[in-house]
Amino acid sequence: MPWTTAGRFGWFADALPGEPVVLCTQTANDRSMRPAAKLGFTEVERFEEFGAEQWFGVWSSATPSG
């Protein structure tokens, strides 16, 4: 039985506590941007590269303080 995406992130968080998962994709790529939002990735920055706007995000199991 294949792992769910949530299960993979849980495994990653257990195996490498405190380490973030990062993602970089073009903002025009809806097929990447939608799952990133659903999975809880947070935008770090946007920048131009390869002639298009890029999106850099991070997911972490660590609870933000504040």
UniProtKB/TrEMBL annotation:
The keyword Transferase applies. GO terms for molecular function: transferase activity. Keywords: Transferase. This is RimJ/RimL family protein N-acetyltransferase.
